[in-house]
Every structure is written in structure tokens, then in C-alpha cells.
Design goal:
The protein is built from one helix and 19 strands. By secondary structure, the chain is mainly β. The protein is globular and about 55 Å long.
């Protein structure tokens, strides 16, 4: 039986968890707990933001400047970025200071500091570059984001000739209610299109990326969870999709909260839309992403 419902939440927060549905024969409660999925999505979102913020900031000048970039045009112009020891032969440090409160065009307010140490060059696109990220009193919308470790490695053109990164991270978030989410991930990111010749900046406005890998952790309520995306079913984001740029348009994510059934979330085969389908225990539900 197929049903269509409206999902209004960040990325996969409620997609990856069960919802309350009515069966054709009688009312039935099916896996209504969304907490673990929401917590996973919250950390995943902050982790991706940290990668994007560092990539964005690396395109600036070699002195202190403001954070402005055309990829998403959502991050704050009030953050101060400082580049130290710009030299391709040794480690470089890029520091982003959001001060005591810096509102971004994405609607988020950040404070504190993110620091990126680059081992080769100062660009996310530079093959062979390894970037180690740390945080100091970094807070997003009242949630304290702590990076225990986060490493971004540019692996070069190893995936069908496309530029590829590996991203590993161990992070935690202390929510405004005092509860903590623990989370680790090991994923691969592939630039399917948008690379420019002669080492020019990536053309993000016309890019496509694919992501696959795994994550695990413990929700704020103490429930363990796992999430995985196979390379054969990697998630695709297409920046050519205009109004649908923020959604995955292809691929499948498998999410398992505790001992509950795995949720299989399918984003389609590439059409620019905000549709997905979630399968729980053989039941398929069509969803609209918001």
C-alpha cells in the first residue's frame, strides 16, 4: 500500500524514522519515535556545514577577510577569517571566528571558532591535501558542537576520474536542554561535475556531488543508531536543480534506530524534485521533502 505524506523537517530528520500512519483496515501505530533520526540528522547537518564553511573560506585573500561565497550564499558575512603561514610546503592554518554571535544567511546563528589546518595548499580542491578541523566554544543556534576529530582528505581523481574526498569525524552536540548526542562517521564524497580546468575554483553553481559511507552514534535519549549508504546507491545532490538544490535527488539511505526495523529511504533516480519514498517493514510511504 502506498501513501503520500508531507514531511516538514531538516533533511532526513523525520524521513529516517517511523511516523504514525493509518492502515487500510484499522488505525495502527507504526514506529512513531523520530528522536534518533533527528539527532543523527542534526549532527550530520552541522558536520557538512563545517566542511562547506572551510571550503568557502579558503577561496578568500591571504589576510583577514569576510566569509562570502557563491556556492550556497548562505554563510555569514560577519565572520572573521584569518590565514596564517600561507605556504604550500608546510602546514597552513585557517581560523574562522564567529565572535559572540554571527547570523548567517542560512538562518543559523553561530559563535566561537573553527580552525582548519591544511597540510598541502589551502584549497579544498587541491589533490593530496589533508585538512584537520577543530573547534573552540563553537555553538550553533544554542547547541554546543564539539569536534573530537575531523579529517578531510583530498584523494585526487580516483573515482571514475572524478575528484574524491574521504571524510572522517567524531563529534558531539550538547543540546540546549543539556542532553548530548555522540556521533562518528566515515564517508566518501565525489565531485561528479563542476570541476574547472587549470586548478580554478569549483563551479558549485553547476556541480553535482555523490556521497556514500556510514555513521553511528547515540541519541540524546541514549538510543544507539546506525546509518549507511552503499557506493552502488550513493546519494546525489545536483546544484543544477535550482529550487531543489538542497535535496538529494538520487540514492538510498538505510537508517536503523536501536532494535527497530531499518528504514530504507529512496530519493529517486535523478529527477529534480523534493520527493522520496520510505520503506518500513515492507510498507512504502511517499514523502515530500521540505
Amino acid at each position: 500500500m502506498n501513501k503520500k505524506i508531507i514531511i516538514t523537517s531538516l533533511a532526513l530528520a523525520t524521513l529516517s524514522a517511523g511516523l504514525i500512519f493509518s492502515s487500510c483496515k484499522k488505525k495502527e501505530v507504526v514506529d512513531s519515535d523520530t528522536d534518533a533520526a533527528a539527532d543523527h540528522t542534526q549532527v550530520e547537518t552541522h558536520s557538512n556545514d563545517i566542511v562547506n564553511i572551510g571550503e568557502q573560506a579558503s577561496y578568500g585573500a591571504t589576510t583577514t577577510y569576510k566569509l562570502v561565497h557563491a556556492e550556497e550564499n548562505i554563510y555569514s558575512t560577519c565572520a572573521t577569517i584569518t590565514v596564517a603561514a600561507l605556504n604550500n610546503t608546510d602546514n597552513d592554518t585557517l581560523t574562522i571566528n564567529f565572535g559572540t554571535g554571527c547570523a548567517g544567511l542560512d538562518g543559523r546563528t553561530r559563535s566561537g571558532i573553527l580552525q582548519y589546518i591544511y597540510t598541502a595548499g589551502l584549497n579544498y580542491r587541491d589533490s593530496g591535501n589533508v585538512i584537520n578541523v577543530s573547534s573552540s566554544n563553537y555553538v550553533v543556534d544554542g547547541n554546543a558542537v564539539n569536534i573530537s576529530s575531523k579529517t578531510i582528505k583530498n584523494l585526487g581523481h580516483i573515482t571514475n576520474g572524478d575528484l574524491t574526498w574521504s571524510i572522517t569525524a567524531s563529534m558531539s552536540i550538547t543540546k540546549s536542554n543539556g542532553k548530548t548526542i555522540q556521533w562518528t562517521t566515515n564517508k566518501t564524497k565525489v565531485l561528479l561535475s563542476g570541476e574547472r580546468p587549470n586548478n580554478q575554483p569549483i563551479d558549485w553553481a553547476h556541480a553535482q556531488i555523490a556521497v556514500y559511507g556510514s555513521a553511528s552514534g547515540t541519541s540524546a535519549n541514549g538510543e544507539s543508531f546506525t546509518a549507511s549508504v552503499a557506493q552502488s546507491a550513493w546519494l546525489v545532490r545536483n546544484f543544477n536543480c535550482n529550487g531543489y538544490r538542497k535535496y538529494f535527488v538520487a540514492g538510498e539511505l538505510d537508517f536503523t534506530p536501536g532494535t527497530k526495523p531499518t528504514r530504507y529511504i529512496n530519493f529517486g533516480t535523478g529527477a529534480c524534485d523534493n520527493m522520496a519514498a520510505i520503506t518500513i517493514s515492507g510498507h512504502v510511504y511517499n514523502v515530500v521533502l521540505h
